[in-house]
Design goal:
Chains A, B: One of its GO terms (cellular component) is cytoplasm. Chains A, B: It comes from Halopolyspora algeriensis. Chains A, B: Pfam families: dCMP_cyt_deam_1. 2 copies of one chain form a homodimer. Chain A is of the alpha/beta class. The first copy, chain A, has a single domain, classed as 3-Layer(aba) Sandwich (Cytidine Deaminase, domain 2), CATH 3.40.140.10. The first copy, chain A, has 7 helices and 5 strands; from the N terminus they run αββααβαβαβαα. Chain A has a 5-stranded mixed β-sheet. Chains A and B meet through α3 and α4 of A and α3 and α4 of B.
Chain lengths: ~150, ~150
């Protein structure tokens, strides 16, 4: 593990960035999932939110947008992907392929993605079970189930 | 399996689209990997090439670009992802998450991605072992090893 030391307070402050992105997405009528890519010194390298609706882009998940926003990086070992929701196979594949060292997840109740698969493959995984993340996603799924199912290919 | 019937000649003609994309990428100084997303009737829904160098976008793999180019689709079960090279975890995660029914791969010699993992999870996988795909990628890796390793996070 090459990730730097970080504590629960760091995780919460990073998650706040992802939650702000998710809220902005909700206000735009989009899928309310946000993410941030955090560097080894705790700096925000990139941030983003799901933009399926806003851009008509089915590959624009929160995690992929945060990753793109960070631009080309020489290494991802010391970075942390922070996301409001358990990452799908697409976004988990991103974390694994690029060797992102740590994953911080807001919640895994509304969608059980591949965070356990990443943990099995050496990624440090922290699940925060954040009440605000759960609430945001629950409301969205109840209001727009078809959009949600489209976003995860179901 | 919901993919439509297709034969070796179809696979070769689809691969030609991906190869044309890869060649265009090489001419631009980029990573020469191309892809196409093909619909159930054999129509090209989207096509693209790796654009890491061209756009400074580390998420712009051939497969993700072809997927984006196709826009939002109601279902991917009948579609085929065609790519010049075995897909990495990121692009394999894309195929699995969205339920793309079939994967046609130009070659797996220069990079052994997760095509077998996809086959284990129900995707119909065809490896063509195409000599032109092998040659293009071999030359690229020999000429620009650092760029190649950056592209796969190594």
């Amino acid at each position: 593990m090459n990730t730097s030391h970080a504590d629960a307070q760091d995780y919460r402050s990073w998650l706040a960035v992802a939650v702000a992105e998710a809220r902005a997405g909700a206000a735009e009528g989009g899928v309310p999932i946000g993410a941030a890519l955090v560097g080894g010194d705790g700096e925000i390298l990139g941030r983003g939110r799901n933009r399926r609706v806003q851009d008509g882009d089915p590959a624009a998940h929160g995690e992929t947008c945060a990753f793109r926003d960070a631009g080309r990086q020489p290494s991802y070992a010391a970075t942390t992907m922070v996301t409001t929701l358990s990452p799908c196979w697409f976004c988990s594949g991103l974390v694994r392929q690029f060797g992102i060292g740590r994953l911080v997840v807001g919640e895994v109740r509304n969608f059980h993605g591949a965070h356990e698969w990443l943990a099995e493959h050496g990624v440090e995984v922290i699940v925060l079970d954040d009440a605000e993340c759960v609430r945001m996603m629950s409301e969205f799924i109840a209001e727009k189930p078809r959009l949600w199912h489209e976003d995860i290919g179901e």
